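Hi V.,

You were right to ask for the full record rather than a summary. Here it is.
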Amino acid sequence: MGGAPEVLAGPLGGLTRVRAHGDPAAENLLVHGDNLEALARLRPRFDGAIRCAYLDPPYNTGRTFAEYADARAPAEWDAMMRPRLAALRPLLADDGAVFVEIDDTQLAPLTLLMDAVFGAHNRVSTITIVRSAPTGHKAINAGPVHVSDFLLVYAKDKKKWRYRPQVRVREGFDPAYSTWLEDPDAKPARWRFRPLRAAVAEALGHPTARAATRALGREAFVARVHAHALRKARHVVRFAQPRYEAIGQAARRVVDRSREAPERVFVLERDGRPPFIVRGGNRVLFLADKVREVGGAPAIVEPLTNVWDDVPFQGIAREGGVVFTRNKKPERLVARVLAMASDPGDWVVDPFLGSGTTAAVAHKMGRRWIGVESGEHLATLAEPRLRRVVDGVDPTGITAATGFSGGGGFVVAIP
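Predicted structure:
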């Protein structure tokens, strides 16, 4: 758009509009300038408005990249980060959180720094992100091979922050789920159980699991068993011994009765919680409670832990249509962060935007976003990337998973 720069009025006051792309009513902000100054200029409008902040600051590796130098003395690195974290804090909503990714070079200093700014009592987690394998030139280094980053998670107020539970796909089948329940819709007193392998063999037209193994081969039959179990997960259960000392009095009484009549199924209904189902002193757990549709197929999922080894960094070199060697993060990684700590429509900020990953992911996930970058790659990488997102011509990253097909817009501004 032509003409002289215009100071943004109203809700985005404090910044100077340079140009815009897409929907003219869009509030998303791509800010080109020093992030410390930008964060200060954002305060009149955004104090207490940001639900999630993701920061991917310089790791202080001692190296120089095409886009920036990553070598500072420890005191200099602290002097760079401390005021920026302090400026970010008032922008966070009371139930907001900040995620800062780093490697082990500055992990300890950053932890102490965030303890000082946000309070050690507001530390939520330190997440280990496995980003590569112990191969290639890394494997010849003295000492353990470095293959991980770390994600420090702090709430503005841990008592008010709400974690949105996340799951991850389990690798392989859980062999503990080895029992077939014939009639899950019948009353529990009439439930009939038998081995899963026998039930699947029968479904495949074989008289026994041994006969199915001979006919199909062991690996092929096992694969068929697992696939059948996932498709019919309501029929598949496991038996697990409850921790007697950890359950309530009512549950203990049910367990005791179940041990006295091991062939019967006992059910304890509980308000606001799944029923406590016991047979032979053991809980009856359903595979269906762990199965979700992922990529159009059923898969076993498990609660997310603080070790993330399931987000590949390989193959992302041209994600978003930009090449940002050794500095770009996978869209799936940032998507997980935003899913943990925000809802559609929430504001997200990234003061070290780099090639635009956080803004691209936030846009595709229906969040409102602010990205700040001082380098020239804002104009050469981040802005063209975000234009492609808005125009619906970026098929990479999480586009297919979110079903995003374009729309929205953003304003490019300077402090």
